[in-house]
Amino acid sequence: MLRLGFAGRIYPVNPSYDQVLGMRAYPTVDDLEGPIDLAVVITPPSTVATIVERCARKGIRAVIVSTEGFAEAGKAGAKLQQQLLNTARHAGVRLIGPNTLGIVNTSNGLITNPYPMGYKRIRKGNIAYSSQSGVIGAHAQPMEDRSYHVGKTCDFGNKCDVDEADWLDYLMDDPGTRVIAMHMEAIKDGRRFMDRLRRTAARKPVFIFKTGRSEQGARASASHTGSLAQSPQICNDAFKQAGAIPVNTWQEFWEMPKVFESQPLPQGNRIAIVTLTGGVGVAATDVAVESGLAMAQFSDATMEILSGLSPNLTKNPIDVGPTMVLTDNPLAVYDTALTAVLSDPNVDCAAIILFAGSAPPVGTTVSMLARLKQRISKPMAVWMYGPRMHFRDKLSRQLEAFGLPAYLEMETAIRALGIAARYAKVKSELGREASRGSPTITTRRKAENRSKSPAS
Questions:
Q1: How far is residue 428's CA from residue 437's CA, in Å, rounded to a whole number?
Q2: Are 288 and 418 in contact (CB under 8 A)?
Q3: Is residue 451 situated within a structural domain?
Q4: Is 453 helix (H, G, I), strand (E, B) or coil?
Q5: What single string gives the DSSP state of each residue in 69-118?
Q6: In the chain, what percentage of residues exceed pLDDT 90?
Q7: pLDDT tens profile 165-186
Q8: Do both 224 and 89 map to the same domain?
Q9: Which helix (H) or strand (E) holds 24?
Q10: Distance of alpha carbon 259 from alpha carbon 255, whole angstroms
């Protein structure tokens, strides 16, 4: 927390120390001074319930329990977890965990992960990630190297109290969150979660990576968090009906949300592909069509600009590589072609393919694309190829710094644009449904209201 710039007060509690990192340490929770918003508990399982009770007496109503050895450890641990939950509910305390690394909030520098990150900062962004696993933690992911625009993260752990539906309740109205990505092993309250998911997806995109697809994976999930996994196929079908976006790999979970983070939704599904190599252009076209995108047909005005650069540049995908080789100012060719294409009213989004060679003009390329993004408000996705990962990573980080998503794989970049186009349509449909009062939603809300009434 100190490294990330957390400005609030921190109260170490440990009877064995007088000071921790220059801060006064307190023997017990009972000795704490002043109002406290959150407690993070990392003590033996048998002591946790008592500590939570003491936190409640101190007016602390939010507790993260990092301690392991609860439901994921067998019957004895499950019994301890139920006792912990009973204590928290009786005391009016909300719990995250147990068996969790807790949360990250880059807007205020709050991080409850006890492990060292290995890097100095996390780029502030508008994407909220969640999981039931500590592998989402800043110590386990290359958040600095990959320039993930993280706003918040939450490891639910065993989620004996706070769960994925609570997470959506919070993020739905959070102005600092534009995109949500959720890694899920099991769903605690399916009906409640699906209601929150549908309402959230009508306002902002929600990605879901559901694991436990195999019988063996489901058993592994039970031993990991003590929860029962559901069929991923059934879940994914339900997620789609609710307007969410299922993904199938860990990389997609981290990479796909970037397309929404600082770009508008496409107005349609027409894509332009601007490439430096014809072979990649063909491959990108295949992926685009498979992803539900249509190859844009350029307007006459765009065709005139492109043919002025070269008669060979009037087809989509546009292979500008041969033309750039024959000019003294190759970047100007790329800039002119890309500007013309993105200004075309027949184009809704664009895939940009760049070369990162042994000595790429990184600064010039970044400046050109930054100016273009300021002038034209259409979603783009970038993929770079080249012999050195160092130059690819450098260019990628600089593009991400001003909100242009760069991807490790060409296919991921194209599919991200396809997802954006589909979600734009889904969001519009969900908005119309909500405005006329969906019978399904109305009935469900009435049922929930009845269940909460004094007569029930």
A1: 14
A2: yes
A3: no
A4: coil
A5: -SGGG-HHHHHHHHHHHHHHHHHT-EEE-SS--EEEETTTTEE---S--S
A6: 72
A7: 999 999 999 999 999 999 998 8
A8: no
A9: strand 23-24
A10: 8
